[in-house]
Design goal:
By secondary structure, this protein is α/β, with parallel strands linked by helices. The protein folds into 2 domains: about 5-10 and about 80-110 and about 235-455, Rossmann fold, CATH 3.40.50.1100; about 25-65 and about 110-230, Rossmann fold (3-Layer(aba) Sandwich), CATH 3.40.50. It is built from 19 helices and 15 strands. The protein has helices spanning about 40-45, 50-60, 70-75, 85-90, 115-125, 140-150, 160-165, 170-175, 190-200, 205-220, 230-235, 240-250, 265-280, 300, 345-350, 360-375, 385-400, 420-425, 435-445, and strands at about 5, 15-20, 65, 80-85, 95-100, 130-135, 155-160, 180-185, 225, 260, 285-295, 305-310, 315-320, 355-360, 405-410. Strands 1-4-5-15-10-11-14 form a 7-stranded mixed beta sheet, sandwiched between helices. β6, α6 and β7 (about 155-160) form a beta-alpha-beta unit. α16 (about 360-375) packs across α17. The protein starts with a strand and ends in a 9-residue tail after the last helix. Bound molecules: pyridoxal-5'-phosphate. The site of pyridoxal-5'-phosphate has 20 residues, from α6 and α13. Pyridoxal-5'-phosphate (PLP) binds near residues 264, 269, 381, 384 and 412.
Length: about 450
């Protein structure tokens, strides 16, 4: 029998999250207060996040219990399946075995509800009535709307204007779950008004929308803020993905030589790879690869430096690979990979060479996505196509070298709301874009005056 799917029963959903901070050879540098330059304390973050999440943000405890109320909602779609991509292997004629973990079976169609549900739960428990957040392509806004709906919390979503206009169905999805959605920059916040005064036609960016949502939360007693990637607690919540995948690889009787995930802010990549990196830190040989777009090459070409998480400069300073908080990426179709920074935990692991990074052009990524869809059936999210490109390249390398190799990648979501991007690809309207060096110089200008991680 040639088994395709490796599934786990509900009883095998992990009961604890894995916190890699307990095992990193070098801890990440602390986030700094932009005013004082000192490490931020719980009190600095309390206006934005519930205390339970602040504690997770700084925790170095290896295993953290998942509350039963969160598990009960995760059961709606977890455990997610692990597939052996036999038809893709055949199409490639590779001796490599290719496995993929699929997170598109969640109601929102991506991995993001793994953290939105946990975040909404802790907010609810601490009496929060309303959550403000931003969304770029719409996936995080959808995931948070879903979770707020389950816990009876009001959701306010600042959606990057260009996506708001180009992806009306994402907005309707959020509204179906009861959220209110407005295009960013908006007139409702100081930050939005400032951007609009400079450029009334601004199409917005993730950094601007973050500024608006943070301001909204900071200025209202009943409201907190939620972030869908980058922060430690977000990456922590995603580790259910890798913990399940480890059990499923065991069912398959295999262990990966190479693991790949696409990288926007780093959360799906972290979710799959951190539980395997535990093994690597303890001596196992695994090649762990973050796949990013050449249009937003945070890890392959960015600076490792302290930088703001948002555009206006309201968040704490994070030690991360960054293209600068003023960076507005070109309108590539993988909207979820357009963030200027990379998660500090992922950045530190990159510094320590426990992981490496590769960048891909969007056209070669769509080539890979369409090949995948025709072999395996599932239409991937444009973000996920970067991991597929990376995995296919590894499989082709194995073919060239005549080597057996086991490849595992994360298919972070489906592309059912992204068909206009596929349409542009089939119509040959997608451009290859490589960030010009001047843009990197501009990035450096924006951050060079901020504290250096070497000094922290
Ligand atoms: C948001 C998103 C990403 C990028 O975010 P990460 O935090 O890097 O995971 C990737 N894939 C999908 C499907 C997404 O929705």
């Amino acid at each position: 029998m040639s088994q395709i799917k490796y599934t786990l029963p509900e009883s095998e959903i992990p009961k604890q999250w894995y916190n890699i901070a307990a095992d990193m050879p070098n801890p990440m540098k602390p986030p700094l207060h932009p005013g004082t330059g000192q490490p931020v304390g719980p009190d600095d973050l309390a206006p934005l996040f519930p205390m339970a999440l602040i504690e997770q943000e700084v925790s170095t405890q290896r295993w953290i219990d998942i509350p039963e109320e969160v598990l009960q909602i995760l059961r709606l779609w977890r455990p997610t399946p692990l597939f052996r991509a036999r038809r893709l292997e055949e199409a490639l004629g590779t001796p490599a075995k290719i496995y993929y973990k699929y997170e598109g079976t969640s109601p929102a169609g991506s991995h993001k509800p793994n953290t939105s549900v946990a975040q909404a739960y802790y907010n609810k428990k601490e009496g929060v009535k309303r959550i403000a957040t931003e969304t770029g392509a719409g996936q995080w806004g959808s995931a948070l709307s879903l979770a707020c709906n389950f816990f009876g919390i009001e959701a306010k979503v600042y959606m990057v204007r260009i996506s708001y206009e180009q992806k009306p169905y994402r907005r309707v999805l959020m509204e179906t779950w009861g959220a209110s959605v407005i295009p960013s920059p908006s007139n409702e916040t100081e930050a939005g008004r400032k951007i609009l005064a400079e450029d009334p036609n601004s199409t917005g960016s993730l950094g601007i929308a973050i500024s608006e949502a943070v301001e909204d939360a900071a200025s209202r007693e009943d409201t907190k803020y939620a972030l869908g990637s980058v922060l430690n607690h977000v990456l922590l919540h995603q580790t259910v993905v890798g913990l399940e995948a480890k059990k499923q690889m065991e069912l398959a009787g295999d262990y990966p030589d190479v693991i790949l995930g696409c990288c926007g802010g780093g959360s799906n990549f972290a979710g799959l790879t951190f539980p395997f990196l535990y093994d690597k830190i303890h001596g196992r040989e695994i090649d762990v690869v973050g796949c990013e777009p050449t249009a937003c090459p945070t890890m392959t070409r960015g600076h490792f430096h302290y930088d703001f998480g948002d555009t206006v400069g309201m968040t704490p300073l994070l030690p991360m690979h960054t293209l600068g908080h003023t960076f507005v990426p070109p309108g590539i179709h993988a909207g979820g990979l357009r963030y200027h920074g990379m998660a500090p935990l992922v950045s530190q692991l990159l510094n320590d060479e426990l992981i490496r990074a590769e960048a891909f052009h969007q056209v070669e990524c769509f080539d890979a996505a369409v090949m995948f869809a025709r072999a395996e059936g599932i239409v991937p999210a444009p973000e996920s196509s970067h991991a597929i490109r990376g995995a296919i390249n590894e499989a082709l390398k194995a073919k060239e070298e005549g080597k057996e190799k086991t490849i595992l990648f994360l298919l972070s979501g489906h592309g059912h709301f992204d068909m206009s991007a596929y349409d542009a690809y089939f119509g040959k309207k997608l451009e290859e874009y490589e960030l010009p060096p001047e843009e990197l110089d501009k990035a450096w200008e924006a951050i060079k005056g901020l504290p250096s991680p070497q000094a922290a």
